[in-house]
Specification:
This protein is mainly β. Helices cover about 10% and strands about 40% of the residues. Keywords: Membrane, Signal, Transmembrane, Transmembrane helix.
């Protein structure tokens, strides 16, 4: 094992291999600017059928399943389902489940799951780890509840089911029949001091593990749990992996894991070596450090590879940003600073965090208010029907922008 560098301070532990990861250069405070038309191609707007009493907001979450556009409105604990042509299908309320439950889409099973703590019990972080370590004891199942919606069933009913070890241990689909544990934490309850940030399972059995750390007292996780993230790659059976407090993006296959990209940033964005070696005295000291060093790098939270660009979300200790990286020119653009222009009637489809990528196509949810606020007419050019209906107040329906990125 060797430390991987973030110009030039130590940021995380990486495996030593002969191949060098490709560099991605990012200056978070001074990103380049460009017009939106430089990036966006084949843009069309899909109208979601309007329904009385349903108002889709700009910050509602969009998910794409095999059959539906799924919009989650966290403020009202509601889900709105539309078919892939934009026709309204159903509203599902999950408010009665409690504040601890949020929908999670599993594309392998085509299910929405809602997993959370039983409100009849008050669990501390220590309690939760005790349950994780001994979940095979049936008595521990009473502390959590789980509900599912089978998206393959036309009835789309919310049904109660039994939580599994995969739920309790924060396991998520990786590829095929492989799953990975995403949560990384420390506790004196662990019998063995050596833990692994990334654990891969198949058929409920641990098959591989990577990135050892001290799971009893690793300084970086004493007051802050971390989560491994996995993102789809263009290669079947391959995923991108990112880790907390590590500037490296890995690729994992069934046979290997190796560094594919490394974020290169200014020195001011690098965590000091003391962060990894010297524990904070208490959580208050950790919180102060985080607020006073809010642009120090934490993790990549989303990563999408296209022929000409990398699209990613970079998280810092108290900030985050959405970026587009030109692979050929090696320039990073912050999406919030990309200027919408006349090609889209000044409507920005690249800003914000709520942008999805599926089958090499991007999807962006746009509320009618956001469209009206940004729209500007273009002389001699007629807006698309979906946009025209909103501008002329014939429609108050949300719209999904569907587009690709230029090659």
């Amino acid at each position: 094992m060797r430390h991987c560098l973030l110009l030039p301070l130590l940021l995380c532990l990486c495996y030593q291999i002969e191949a060098q990861p490709q560099k991605i250069y990012l200056n978070p405070k001074s990103p380049a600017t460009e017009n939106q038309s430089h990036f966006v191609d084949s843009l069309r707007f899909l109208t979601l059928e309007a329904k009385d009493g349903i108002i889709i907001g700009q910050w509602d979450n969009l998910e794409i399943t095999a059959s539906y556009f799924l919009i989650t409105q966290y403020t009202n604990s509601a889900i709105f389902l539309y078919d892939r042509q934009g026709r309204f299908v159903k509203k599902i309320s999950y408010k009665k489940l409690g504040d601890d439950f949020y929908p999670r889409y599993d594309k392998k099973t085509e299910e929405l799951s809602f997993y959370g703590a039983n409100k009849n019990y008050s669990l501390t972080p220590k309690d939760r780890i005790k349950i994780e370590l001994n979940f095979s004891n049936r008595r521990n199942r009473k502390y959590y509840k789980k509900y599912i919606i089978d998206l393959k069933d036309p009835k789309l009913e919310l049904k109660k089911t039994v939580p599994t070890e995969y739920d309790v241990n924060n396991m998520a689909p990786l590829y095929g029949d492989y799953y990975y544990r995403s949560k990384v934490a420390t506790s004196k309850l662990y019998k063995d001091s050596t833990g692994y940030e990334l654990k891969v399972y198949r058929n409920g059995k641990l098959v591989k593990q990577y990135f050892p750390y001290n799971q009893i007292n690793a300084p970086k996780y004493l007051y802050d749990e971390g989560y491994i993230a996995a993102f789809e790659s263009q290669d079947t059976g391959t995923r991108f992996i990112t880790r907390p407090y590590c500037d490296t993006i890995y690729k994992i296959t069934r046979d290997s894991l190796y560094p594919a990209f490394q974020m290169v940033m200014p020195l001011e964005n690098a965590l000091p070596s003391s962060f990894f070696n010297t524990p904070f005295k208490n959580k208050a000291e950790w919180d102060n450090f985080r607020q006073n060093n809010n642009w120090m790098f934490r993790q990549i939270y989303q990563f999408i590879e296209t022929p000409a660009y990398y699209f990613f979300i970079a998280g810092f200790l108290y900030n985050s940003g959405v970026y587009m990286y030109d692979r050929k020119r090696q320039i990073a653009y912050q999406n919030s600073k990309i200027k919408a222009d006349s090609t889209t009637f000044n409507i920005n489809v690249l800003s914000g965090y709520n942008m999805l990528h599926k089958d090499r196509v991007f999807y962006k949810l746009l509320s009618p208010d956001a469209i009206r606020e940004s729209y500007k007419p273009v002389t001699g050019k007629t807006p698309p029907e979906a946009i025209d209906a909103i501008i002329n107040k014939k429609s108050n329906a949300a719209v999904i922008a569907v587009f690709t990125l230029k090659n």
